[in-house]
Amino acid sequence: MLWWLVDNANLVFLVLGLIVLVLAVRWRLTRRGKYLIGAGVVVALIGVVWALTLLIVTDRKRLVQIVEEVTEKLNRKDFQGAFTHMADEVQLEMSGRSARLPRKALQGLAESSFKRYGVPGITVWSTEVEKVERPTAQVSFYLRPTNEVKYAVCTADFLLVGEDWLVSGLKIEPPAGAQIPFP
Predict the structure, then answer these.
(1) Tell me: the pLDDT tens digits for 62-109?
(2) Closest CA relative to residue 120, chosen from 144, 147, 142, 143
(3) Can you tell me the distance from the alpha carbon of 169 to that of 166, in angstroms, rounded to the nearest whole number?
(4) Helix (H) or strand (E) holding 19
(5) Do 43 and 20 form a contact (C-beta atoms < 8 A)?
(6) pTM, two decimal places
C-alpha cells in the first residue's frame, strides 16, 4: 500500500489539499475548533506522505533512476558502468530488425557509434514507466544526441534479477529518414 501512496503522491496531495481547503473554509465560516483541528491533522498527513516519497524507493522510481544513471554514465563515456544495468543478453530491435546481442557486443556497438558519429552525449526525457509486473517492467522515453534535434522513441524491457532491474530488451525507433546501421 505504501508504494501506491508514493507512486501516486501528486494525486494524494491534491485530494488532501482539497480536504484542507474545505475544512479551512468551514472553520472560517463557523469558527468551530474541530474544523481547525481536522485541517491540522490533514496537513500532518500531507507531511507524512511527503516524507514517505523521500524515504521509499518504489520499483517505478528505481526504473526511472536507472534510465537517468545510464544516461549520465554514457555522457561521461563510462560505457562499462552504463552497461552494468544490462542483462547478459539484450534483445535489440531497431529499424524493423531484431537481434539478441551479448552485453559486451552491445557495449562495443555503443562505443563505436559514439566515436563514428561524433556523439558528444545524449539527452533523455519524458521517461515513463509503462508497466511493472514483477519480475518484468517496461519503460519508454525519448532519446537524442545532444548535437541533434531529431530524436528516437525508445522502449526498454526490464527484468528483475535478485534486487536489480536489468535491461533485457531495447526497442529504438529512429527518426524518419535516419540511416542508423543495424549491428
Answers:
(1) 999 999 999 999 999 999 999 999 999 999 998 788 999 999 999 998
(2) 147
(3) 9
(4) helix 9-30
(5) yes
(6) 0.80
